[in-house]
UniProtKB/TrEMBL annotation:
Organism: Streptomyces kaniharaensis
Taxonomy, superkingdom: Bacteria
InterPro entries, per the entry: Glyas_Bleomycin-R_OHBP_Dase, Glyoxalase_6
Name recorded for this polypeptide: VOC family protein
Listed Pfam families: Glyoxalase_6 (PF18029)
Matching PANTHER family: CONSERVED PROTEIN (PTHR35908:SF1), HYPOTHETICAL FUSION PROTEIN (PTHR35908)
Glyoxalase-like domain sequence ranges: 18-127
Length: 131
């Protein structure tokens, strides 16, 4: 039996290869998340960019989509397609750094411990204190 599959033991048969985020400008969005996470760019061109996870986990990809439009998450009846959440040591400091990188802060927030920000391509992401 493959080391990827063992359905009889309740494990899955696939491993996450990468999370790819749609956007209008893969190079710019990869630069934003590269600075936010401290990850290195493995590849970047007009159509696709990849950031390597230095901890050995799955990388992040960014793919150009023609006619890309941001998610309407910040509207009360809007929906989101996905979001990323990140642990941070200091919420206020991390928020300030993300805003300096080009994130924006919507008026609507879910709660007190998770700070929702919007990346430069319009995707929501969350920052939460580690403790």
């Amino acid at each position: 039996m493959s080391d990827l599959a063992d359905d009889q033991n309740g494990t899955g048969f696939a491993r996450l290869a990468m999370v790819t985020i749609d956007c209008a400008d893969p190079v710019a969005l990869a630069a934003f998340y590269g600075e936010l996470l401290g990850w290195e760019t493995r590849h970047a061109d007009d159509h696709f960019a990849i950031l390597d996870n230095p901890e050995g986990g799955s990388p992040l990809g960014f793919g150009r989509v023609s006619g890309y439009k941001p998610e309407p998450w910040t509207e009360p009846d809007g929906s989101k397609h996905f979001h990323l959440d990140f642990y941070v040591d200091d919420l206020d400091e991390a928020t300030a750094k993300a805003l300096a990188l080009g994130a924006t802060e919507p008026t609507f927030q879910h709660g007190r411990t998770l700070k929702v920000l919007i990346d430069p391509a319009g995707h929501p992401f969350g920052l939460a204190p580690l403790d």
